[in-house]
Amino acid sequence: MPVYSETEQVGDADDGADVREVPMSDMIHGTTESTTSPMWDVSDAAFRAEPYPFYDRLRTADPVHVTETGAVVLTRYDDVLNTLRSNDFSRDIVASATGRDDPVSMRRAKRARSGSKSILNLDPPDHTRLRRLVSKAFTPTAIERLRGSIGQLVDQSLDRAADAGEMELVEELAFPVPFQVISNLLDIPDDRESEVREWSSALTASLEPTATLDDLDAAEAASAQLAPYLLEIVDERRRHLGDDVLSGLIAVEEEGDRLTLAELLTFVVLLYVAGHETTVNLIGNGTYALLRNPDQLDLWRGDPSLDASAIDELLRFDGPVQQTARVPTVPVEYTVDGRTIVVEPGTFVNPWLGAANHDPAVFADPGRLDLRRTNCNRHVAFSAGIHYCLGASLARLEATIAITRLIRRFPRLELVSEPVYRDRVTIRGIDEMRLVTR
What we know:
There is one protein chain. This protein is mainly alpha-helical. The chain has a single domain (4-436), classed as CATH 1.10.630.10. The protein contains 18 helices and 13 strands. The strands form five sheets. A three-stranded antiparallel sheet has the order 1-8-7, with no helix packed on it. Strands 2-3-9 form a three-stranded mixed sheet. Strands 5-13-10 form a three-stranded antiparallel sheet. Strand 11 and strand 12 (430-432) form a beta hairpin. The chain is globular. The termini are far apart.
């Protein structure tokens, strides 16, 4: 059955693409299709290494790209933003999207139906209820109170780097600082850092459009280890409530409401994984962007007035989350060159955040890093609408403190070699980056 129609006959909109949409994991947002189209090939190593030229090409040639299977790929800023903000779309992909019968999609759907859904994959009123119950712990005012402790953690990492004369950015700064911060917020011991990093890697790998059944097996194995560990901590915290976020989630009441155990565990897993994963990649991607643009690095290093806004340009330029997904619940329309494309309910719609952030219709010369860009705060790196990232203030604060102190502590900061990006599409980030710290 067709899932879209056009008001004019425009020929083959797919250009031979073979794209398979897949439901989303309940952990963090992301994932869509796999394709071998010359125009849009997320399985291409060149795409994964540097996706922005591919975004530009598709945005110019076919900005509302309808695939053979009927999935819709969005690359224009306005289309992405309007979709994210619209009440005509569902975030509950498994419940709302037309089902697929390939093994990976079926496994994902079964997994999503077997447990409690995270706040990221819920629609109102369930989303409204959970967001209200947990949002107080993540207001900008609450997060700002962490500035001093985050600064101490960053300085400790930089002290070690200064003594050594070099550092591996991800291992020694970008990962341990956000991990310690979220561990402190939840009052969870930090003695299993290496295991949590492995679990997080397996869980986020399962979000990728190229994920295999083996990847899903690894994610389920990680969940099987992470969940009992966190359940033990939750049980202990119930007996001894403190002033941490986990205790607050356990005790929270709003109009007689509270989180069920399943909702609590799902949310804690989300916080524990997404609470550091996005920031790790923001620090890594942002630092690399500055080192590739030494004029901007020098500009920020010498101008503290940029501290409040520069991180938004780094988020726009090379954000850690490249894509998300929605499903229309009513027919929705997109206009391209005077044509109206009608997308029917149940269709998998894939807004590419990274593509929107490089749309020249909104951001002049988008491929240029410009820390004085006046509208960089219009980026959609944290999504938009009711699903705007709950931890955005925390990620901004952590990344700003980490990057500003790094570049000012070491005026001759240099790359030892080109960094290694993880082979991912959805969660874009550097796996390893060695620096000379002097």
